Amino acid sequence: MNTVRTVSSTKAAFQQTYQRPINSVYRRFVEEFLTELHLVTVNSKFTYDPFFAMGMVKVYEQFMQGYAPADQAQPIFDAVCQSLQFKSEVIRQDADKLTEILASADRDRALEVLQLNATTADIGGIKGILDKIRNNPEFHYSRTFLLGLYIAFTMVAPENADKERKTKLFGDITETLKFPKERVDKDLALYNSNIEKLEQALAVMKDLAEAAKRDREKAATPTEPPASSEAPSENAPTPVE
Asked: How much is the average pLDDT of 215-231?
């Protein structure tokens, strides 16, 4: 009988792999990211695919912008993957390959593939993946998969379409895949809200960093003594030579 991994065991595996302290500004995101992925991946109905990989990689990159020290963002992601029993290089390769396929394809055709248009030929196996999901009543929906699909959609959505039109187009895709509308709307709203908060926080951090830099430069600049405004007195003593 296989024992399902617990959240605490996954967190312990992460801490054992990555033993440095995590920047306090990003600690909550890393903990929630790890916990959410754990709960998804231990589900018996979970299946891995490139859209899930896209969601993992792109969401992580978006929310770890500005991490300091910068060279530790990758090791943290590696530790997350290892604690979930994934290989980070495979996750990144799959996400990069999906990105490359969409970036090099005709936008209209790629969009039709995501829409599972019956008359449009597949591109890089994308249509096959989504068609399999559509026909699988046991498919385990997750926010990570949804965001991977959403990020893929934003790459091929009509450039001249307004926000309302794009929302409608993506809604049609998720409806075709038989995803619960309320869950989709809630997950996207939370994602967009968090992105907005992140951008605001990064702007504040940038302003603080620039202010601190100015203060350091000001403190390092030597100050000259103020020049005397008084003319020497005619009765001032002559210096002794």
From this structure: 69
pLDDT of res. 202: 74
pLDDT score of 205 more than 90: no
Q: Could you tell me if 106 and 119 are in contact, meaning their C-beta atoms sit under 8 angstroms apart? A: no
The residues, any chain, with a CB within 8 Å of residue 199's CB and separated by 6 or more, are none
DSSP 150-207: HHHHHHHS-TT--HHHHHHHHHHHHHHTT--HHHHHHHHHHHHHHHHHHHHHHHHHHH
> How far from the centroid of its chain's Cα atoms is residue 37's Cα?
14
* pLDDT value at 239 more than 90: no
Q: What is d(CA 33, CA 212) in angstroms, rounded to the nearest whole number?
A: 31
Tokens of 147: 């965001």
Residue 27 CA: distances (Å) to CA of 23, 98, 160, 179, 202 = 6, 29, 38, 31, 15
At CA 61, angle to CA 113 and CA 126, rounded to 5? 15
C-alpha angle 213/214/217, rounded to 5°? 85
Q: Is the pLDDT of residue 224 over 80?
A: no
CA angle 85, 91, 95 (to 5 degrees): 160
* Dist CA 53 CA 39 (whole Å): 16
Q: How many angstroms separate the CA atoms of 56 and 94, rounded?
A: 11
Instruction: Confirm if 63 and 194 have CB atoms less than 8 A apart.
Output: yes
Q: Is pLDDT at 235 greater than 60 in this prediction?
A: no
Burial 55-74 (b: 16+ CB within 10 A, else e): bbbbbbeebbebbeeeebbe
pLDDT band at 155, cuts 50/70/90?
Answer: very high
